Every structure is written in C-alpha cells, then in structure tokens.
Amino acid sequence: MLTSVLRRPQGLSKFYSSQTRPFVPPASLNSFDFRQRQREKPRPTTPTFYTARPEFYDQLSSLESALQYAKTALTTCHLLPLPQFAREALPPRVNAWVDKRELGLKLRSTLTTSRYRRVVLVLNELETYRSIAEKAGIMELQEGIRGITELFERADAATMLARGKAKPVKLDEYGRSYTLGKRKTSSARVWIVPVQQPPVDKSTASQSIPAVTEADSALTALLNPNSSSKSNEAVSVAQILVNNTPLSTYFPIPADRARVIHPIKLAGLLGAYNIFAIVRGGGTSGQSGALAHGIAKGLVAHEPSATTILRKAKLLRRDPRMVERKKPGLAKARKRYAWVKR
Amino acid sequence: MLTLPVRCQRVSCQLLASSSTSPLVQTRSYATQPKKGQIVKQASQGFKGKKNTPPGQMESAKKDKKMMAFQPLPVSQLPHPLFESDRPDSLTLQSFHPEMLTRVVESQALKFPHNDNDPFRIFGLPRNILVEFRLLSKPCSVIRSVTIDAINKLDAASEKNSKESRVVFTGPQGCGKSFLLLQALQYCNARDWLVLYIPRATNLVNSTTAHTYDMRTRTYLQPIFAYQTLQRFLKVNTPRLEQLRTQTGIEIERRHPVPPGTPLVELINIGLKDQGHAPTVLDAVLEEIGKQTIFPVLLAVDDFQALYCKSHYRDQHFSAIKSYHLSMPRLLLEYASGRKSFARGAVFGALSMSNTTFPLPVELREALSLEYDRPYGQYVKRQQELVEYAHGLERLAVPSSLSVSEAASVFEVWMKDRAVPSKPNDELFLTKYSEASGNARAFVWKGLLSSMSA
C-alpha cells in the first residue's frame, strides 16, 4: 500500500497536486524490499468488530437477514403485505422464547433488557412469517424458519403455552380415563371404563335371521304402539360404584342420584360406561356435584362429541360457588342482626 | 268371657277377674288398638270399682287401620276426562299358576289370583306391599330367577320334614324378599298345601297386642293374636282342614280333653269360641297338622328377625320381655329352629332390613353367615337361647339388583298401569335403573313414581 501511495497517490486523478510531495524516482525503489507490514491486529472478519458486542450483533444481523429473506420470499409469493382479515385469520400465537439469561448464553454475550427485547422482536416477526408460510402451505420456507426459531424456544414451551388450559385427559392401557371433579369442599376421583359387551355366541346360521326380525319388530312397534314385542338384544347397564358401594346405597336421596346420572343422560351414554369413584370431603350434595363434574370430564375424554352438550349444561365447569365467609357486624354472611330503633 | 277395656290415650292397667281364663289377666290397654268409631273416654275411676265395659271386641291385630293413605278412588268418582276412566285396561297379565312356573316365564309379570279365601286378603300383607297393591290395578309380581329357585326348594321340601327345609331370605333392603315370600305362599296355596302366613312379625313383639302371664306354661300368652291366627288359618285352609282329624287326645285347661279323631275344624272352633283357649288350641292344631302327611305345611313369616330381638313388652321390673317368653314368637321360633316340625313342609322366613326398631341381631347374622355391619368380637354377648333357636337356618340370598329383563317387566307393569308421571321411554328406564343400581324398591318408588321428567 505504501508503494502504491508513493507510486500513485490515491484518489489523485488530477495532474496537478494540491500538496507538494518529494519526487521519488520509481526505479530507486526497486531495491527496497517492501514487505507487507504485518498487521498487529488481524483484519476484523465482520463489520461488527467495532461494535461493543460483536457476537451479539452478528447473531442479530444474521437473524435480521433471515427475516429479510423470509420477507422477500413471502412477498414474491404475494403473501405480504397481508390484508387485515387474513392476519386476523391466522391462529394467535403466544410465543415462549428463552429468557434473557438463556438467550445471553446462546448468543454468547450478556444481554440487557433492551437488547433482549430487540432479539425477541425479530423472533416474533420470524414466527409470524412462519405461521403465514404454514397457513399458505409453503413447507420449505416454514421448515427453514422453524429451524431458526426452534433454537430460541424454551424447552418447556409446550407446558408454558398450555398453562391455564385444561390438560387433555389420556386413556391408560386398559382404556380407562381418570378425572377429577370438585364442588364446594368435596373432590371426586373418577375412573371411567367402557362396558365390555359380552361376546355374541350365536351360530353364524342364525346371524342373518335376527337382522330381518329386528326390522320387522321395529316396524310393528311403530305401527302398533300398544303392542309389546321384546327384542332379544342384550341391554348393557352401567355399574356405578362410589367409595366401593353402589350408587343407590351411597346416595339415598333421589336428587343426589339424579345429579350424578345427569351428565351421562345428557350425553346419551347410559349403560355405555362403568364408573368407579372415590369421593372425599363435604356433604352429600357437594359430593354428588363433584362426582357429576368428574363424570362429565371423563365422558368428554371418551366421547369428544359430547363436549358441546355438556358445556351447554355447564357440567364441565367447576362450580365456583363456595361458602361465603362471615363478616364482622353481621350474624352470618348476609344475615344482619335485628334492627333496633333506639 | 274375657272382657277387654277399650280406652283412648289413657294408660290404665286393670285387673280383671274372669272365670274362664286364668285368675289374673293383666292387660296394657294402651297397647291395644281402639275400635274404629267407638272411642270411649274414661272418667276417673275413684273407688267405684269395676266398670261395665262393652263386651270383648275382635281386636284387629292384623288389619292396619292407619293405612288410610293410598286408598284409590273408585272409578265412578272420576268423571273428568283427564282421568281416562273409560280407557280399556292395557295391563293384561297371565295368571299366577303353579304349573307355568318354570325358567321360561322368568322376568315375566304374573297377576295373583283373586279368590275369596286368598291368603293375602285373609292373612294380610306387609305394609309396603299393601300400599303397592293399592296403587296397582291388580296385584301382580314379576317372576325372577330366585323365584324359581325358591319354588324348586318348596317342591323338594314337600316330601321332607320341615326340619330340613328352614329357609330365610336375605338381601339388602328393597331387593324383593317379602315379594318372594308372597310368591312362595301363593304357590303353596295353589298346590294345596296348608299355609300359615304372618305378614308382620313385628306386631308380635312390639306390644300392640295383649299379653297375659300363664302359670302353666310359664310364658306370656298372646290370646288375641292366637285367636286371630286361628280364625284366619281356618278361613284360608278350610277345604283341607275338613279332611283332617286329630290323632291324639288334646288337653285344654278348664275343659274336658278333646278325644282323638275329632275333626280339626272342630278343634279350631273350640279356640275360636274362647279367646283364652286360643294359644293352647293353636299349639295343638299345629302339632296335629305336623303329624299328618296328607298335606305339606308352609309356615311363612315376614320380618323374621323380629322374632330374635327383645320385645317391647315390659315385665313388672320394667325389663324387656324376651321374645321366646311370649307364646306366639316362641311357637314360631320352635318351628324355625326345628324343635317342632311338620312331617311334610317347610318354614320360610324373610328378613326386613329396613326396620330400625327390630334390627338384625348378631345371633341370626352369624347363623345365616351374613356380613357384619359393625365389628362384633367375642366379647359381644350372644344369647345362648337365640343361638340355639337360630341353629340350622338355611340362607337364600335374594340378588340385590334386578336383572335388566326383570326390571323391564316391572317398568312395563307400572307403565301400562299409567302410574309413571314421566314420559315412559327407554331413557327413563335406563336412567332410573342406573340411579337405583338395580335395587327394586329404589327403582319403583324413588325412581319411577317419584320423579317427573319431560
């Protein structure tokens, strides 16, 4: 560089010089061995060298470039700018990014809140574009963005996002569901298992005949409502055990029994599921309410189609009513002492 | 003639001298039921001495006059079209006939025959069943698998001594023990057995009937109850009793002995003429029919556990009189324990688990090997006499829940009688069946009849 400066001053395209320089004949310089002077410091690899946090800004810039790439890709697909109605149609996404400390470890620099926010902003934008790509069906772009965003997602993102939502009830290896129901101070643990139909032990020869007689008997039953014709179908009945006693023994009051059976009746699953429950706490009506709640949740696990009707009947909701506390100056929660004029 | 004072709501204890009976007859008149329409108020006795009381009335020991509820109105008093009195009766049931009682008619409802000398009408019914039969258009019951079992036992017992066939129906409350006993009773009556039915054994021990101490037997006699029992026994079994005669001579106090070869009907009439002789005559009659082998005998007792409990009678020290010190329960206990027996026949009993004044005692619970409801150790006293009276009783467990077909028949009976207030469809059936866990009483009373649903 020195020789080039000497040989041809930089930037000088003019023939006149504004600055006098001693004339050095070029041939005299041939003897000099102008080795490239070693840099004391290596040439910085990235332009962010001169920033306070080069790694951070590197990562940030790479994220921003990825964002830019995604944006151009979506723009070419005419998906950006997205009209308002389309943006609203996208599923709302609550993001669960790693916290400031974790992100600092990932980006190999300690982060302040404002820097963390900046990164999160970019990540949120990326996530938005990813959801647009997913909705539009552009799988390569979606997977590409996903590859970036999943690096910054929390390990327990699923649990964080599912916070406050009901855990989906799983059936165990025997097909039983286990749910909890509560009402006032009672709690009920409910196991629901489908009733096992007894194996049909008719011979194959008679298999075809019942099909005909069933239709006939149904027809005659419709035409003659007063005639009684018993079909040979086996009716399955549900067994309900509460604290290892049958339902009628545990709840002698008919209202409590009806409350327990109500969710099964609404769902139309009478005789379909056997129920075993352990109830603790409270009194009879609290226990029956808790049991009904547990049964409703269990039935939804087995038959999701019953969700609508049970929700409409407010059986899936934990009844929030609890005993109101006594207040000072009042005899009970609401009862006032007798008013005395003087 | 034994005279009985009839009072209303006043405790009075009168000592009456009577020529025909034992010299001292102590009656607790508050325990007897006042005759309907004749409530005599007692003025203070003072020093007036014995009052002239109306002659002894027939005590309604078995007819429950308090059951005025659930008396259905006659059809003529229901002119409003809402009652649909002109609609034909849709409940068509076959008659309960002994020949048809096989496994084929299981879970089918059959109506009980309507006779003049029907044992139900004469002997009476337990309270719950009485109310149910008043609500239904005709008395009927559903034949269950356990009915066929009981009937098979009866068929086997008809050839054997009653010592070998002493059966007690057990099961939780409302499972159908009393109904099963009724079905057995009707079966035996139709099969030409001699039947003696005590529908409410609690009435023997709850001090509602007069009791008198007898020096000869050293027990408390219950003359009125014995009199009623003889009367009804005679009425139900007249055609069979007319064929029987006494085999030995019978001694009755203050009377010349009854020679052998006397028709049993005549013997019974001796007891009916004088209430004081009734307990002795009843004992003798049962012994005579126990010796003969022409007709098998069925002794059916409902509320069986009441015989093993302490009675509500009090002696002069105010301690409760034991049930085996009363003549009627003692008689039944002796046949139930096998000390006395019929040459051909059986003794059937049905427990009543819903009676809290006469709960199931531990001696009977152990004899029938039933589960304990509370911890009984070896330090709980078991009365040796009751243990011996309960020895050898056989248990027939009535299933706690109706099967689906049986419940369906029960449902159909009530539905066709138009007694179900809700819409009778299969959803109601399954709902009430599940709520009741198959229990018969809960299904009918707390399920079908108690609730209204759209």
Automatic annotation (TrEMBL), chain A:
Q: Which Pfam families match?
A: Ribosomal_S9 (PF00380)
This protein's GO CC annotations: mitochondrial small ribosomal subunit
Q: Name one GO biological process term.
A: translation
> Which is an annotated GO molecular function term of this record?
structural constituent of ribosome
| PROSITE patterns per record | RIBOSOMAL_S9 (PS00360)
The record, for SUPFAM superfamilies, names: Ribosomal protein S5 domain 2-like (SSF54211)
The organism's place on the tree of life at top rank = Eukaryota
Q: Any idea which UniProt keywords this protein has? A: Ribonucleoprotein, Ribosomal protein
Checking InterPro entries in the record gives:
Ribosomal_Su5_D2-typ_SF (IPR020568), Ribosomal_uS9 (IPR000754), Ribosomal_uS9_CS (IPR020574), Ribsml_uS5_D2-typ_fold_subgr (IPR014721)
Assigned protein family: Belongs to the universal ribosomal protein uS9 family.
Q: What protein is this chain from?
A: Ribosomal protein S9/S16-domain-containing protein
Source species of the chain: Suillus subaureus
Automatic annotation (TrEMBL), chain B:
List the InterPro entries: P-loop_NTPase, Ribosomal_mS29
Starting at the broadest rank, the lineage of the source organism is: Eukaryota, Fungi, Dikarya, Basidiomycota, Agaricomycotina
GO cellular component terms given for this protein: mitochondrial small ribosomal subunit
One Pfam family named in its UniProt record:
DAP3
Localization in the cell: Mitochondrion
**What keywords does the record list, in alphabetical order?**
Mitochondrion, Ribonucleoprotein, Ribosomal protein, Transit peptide
Q: What is this protein called?
A: Small ribosomal subunit protein mS29
Of which family is this protein a member?
Belongs to the mitochondrion-specific ribosomal protein mS29 family.
Q: Which domain of life is it from?
A: Eukaryota
The record ties this protein, via Gene3D superfamilies, to: P-loop containing nucleotide triphosphate hydrolases
Species of the source: Suillus subaureus
* GO molecular function annotations of the record: structural constituent of ribosome
Matching PANTHER family, A to Z?
MITOCHONDRIAL 28S RIBOSOMAL PROTEIN S29 (PTHR12810), SMALL RIBOSOMAL SUBUNIT PROTEIN MS29 (PTHR12810:SF0)
